[in-house]
Each structure stands twice: as structure tokens, then as C-alpha cells.
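Let us work through a complete example step by step.
Step 1: write down the sequence.
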Amino acid sequence: MEAGCGLSTFMFAPKIERIEETLIMTRSYAALLSIAITVLCTVFGQLLIKKGMLEIGAAPGRTAMLPDFLWRTFTNYKVLLGLAAAVVAAVSWTVAVSRSDLSFAYPFMGLAIVLVLAISPAMFGESVSLMRWVGVLVVCVGLWLSARG
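Step 2: predict the structure and record it as C-alpha cells.
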């Protein structure tokens, strides 16, 4: 009986290992997809909120004007869509960290910084200094190193 168990275990071991490898790969793909959705929704949300706030204007300096400002802010469809994107990003993030180590997933959030910095000049006419681009380059190198390790 002992030999039979050993033989069946031996016969099924390669199949079990392949199933485990497939599950790990599937879990990794799901984690990477969730991280990508998180980053993209974060960027999309930030850009939408900024676009909406450009329509509304700067926050008032006087407290008496705050209720009107908040009303205009939270009834602006661009701001609301941006906040909704942030909620989707948060839900996606919970999936990402449930399927990967936080130390692996979190550095990818730096991509949001890179993408916002790259898109902002074209979308909002913002000027980006050389030092900011150098900073983004440092972030990119850090992401590359983190993904390799």
C-alpha cells in the first residue's frame, strides 16, 4: 500500500506542480492587471478632477464662500467622474494587494506620478522644469529596479 501511494504521488506530482505554477501565474497576471487598473484610474481621476476644478476656480479664501464652492465642486460632473475613478482605483488596489506583496505592488503607484507629469503639459498647458523630469527619471529607474527584484 505504501508503494502504491508513492507511485500515485509520483505520477501526479508533475501535474500538481503545473497546476500550482498556472495558479501562481494567473494570480500574478490578476495582480498586475489590478495594479494597471489602479494606476490608470488614479491618473484618469486626477486629470478629471483638475479639469473640473479649472472650471470651478480656486478654493475661496473666505469661509463664508466655502458652501457655494463645495456645492459647485460636488455638482461638477468632471469632479464626480474623477472621484468615481478614485473609488474604482481603490477597489482595484484591494484586489492587487490581496494577490501580491505590498512591497511589489506599491512601487508601481509611482507610474501615476510619471503619467500625470507627462500628460499635464499637453492637457493643461503646464510647464515642467528639467528638475521635475530628472525626478521622474529617478522614479522610472526605481520602478525598473523594483520590478526586477
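Step 3: interpret the result. The chain has one domain: 2-148.
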